[in-house]
Amino acid sequence: MKKLATQGTKKLAAQLLGWVIFFFLWERLVYFYVSDEGNRWLFTAYDTGAIVLSFYALYAWVTPRLFHHRSRWRFALAFVVSVGVAGGIMYGVMQILLREMVAPVHFSFNWTYDAMQRNRFFIAFLGAATGVVVRLAMGWMQARREKVATELTYLRAQINPHFLFNSLNTIYVQMAMPGVDARETLSTFSDMLRYQLYECTSELVPLEREIAYLNNYMQLQRLRKDERYEITWEQSGEATEKKVAPFLLIPFVENMFKHVSNRPEGGNLIRGRLTLAPGKLHFEGTNTRSAAGGGTGGGGKETGGIGLANVRRRLDLLYPGRHKLTIMDEPEMYTVCLDLHL
Question: Is residue 180 located within the same domain as residue 148?
Fold first, then answer.
């Protein structure tokens, strides 16, 4: 409750500040030609009052209740009524202040009291129209955020079955090997699962933990490969206090192992490199491949795999304009490079 109250107070303060800034901008931009300073402040106060009344009538009440509920004629009627009420209130205020000489206007132009009062309805119309536009725009942005959040959750969830299948299969193979203790492998798998289930609930996670997850995955996969495979993993740069979207690199590493060539004579290469610099991350993954095989990004058929489309979509959603994904698809070598602005 306290957090909600604090957020409400901040929101109210931001709106008040916005209206104060609007007041001074309106005074300077709309009434710059009025020589008398008192007149400028009076006109701006009348205009702002009409705009605020009609804006919040349409923003907070009319639009959210009537616009999307197949009641367009009721919405139009409420719009007209709101403009009439807001304009009428300010019309009456000006009637009292001007005609009773409470706040007289020093005329140095061709306006009259009647023209100034009638103008309140046009000003109220501007406020009402702005309220509708702002409310619809905010609703669209909120729907967009919810759609993106839902899609990211779905895309990230696609990784889980693939991870479980590969890891459990590794442990199963190791348990069947004579003289091999699978408990250490099971501990590594447990740490990976803990990270996946309990530490990746936010949009960003510590880069150190993400790298530890990659290292654990590499360790598990090394157990499944023999001397025919050359596996290297290099890392340079400082990961402390950096954050990254979870499971962003693991699809590339998974596919390096999944699509690597399987030459009986050896020469099967899996090479990964992670370079960190202030505000930047560079990942490069390479694996040899057979003529019909795939690669780190899914150069071939990826039945049951995560796929390059998933990775591209996450990058577009999470790092728009802040990433560059390059794929080099050669006959016997597949390389993917990712440059990311953290």
Answer: no
CA 188 from centre of chain: 32
Shared domain for 136 and 202, answered yes or no, is: no
How many domains does the chain divide into?
A: 2
CA 167 to CA 288: how far, in whole Å?
22
* CB-based contacts of 21, cutoff 8 Å, min separation 6: none
230 bridge partner residues: 269
pLDDT tens sequence across 175-230? 777 766 777 888 888 888 788 777 777 778 889 888 988 888 888 888 778 888 88
Coil, strand or helix at 88: helix
Q: Which amino acid is at 236?
A: S
Enter the tokens of residue 261.
Answer: 């060539």
* CA–CA dist 131, 136 (Å, integer): 9
Q: Note whether 215 and 144 are same-domain residues.
A: no
Range of the domain at 191: 158-341
What tokens does 159 get?
């990784």
Asked whether the whole model's pTM tops 0.70, one would answer no
Q: How far apart are CA 120 and CA 86, in angstroms?
A: 8
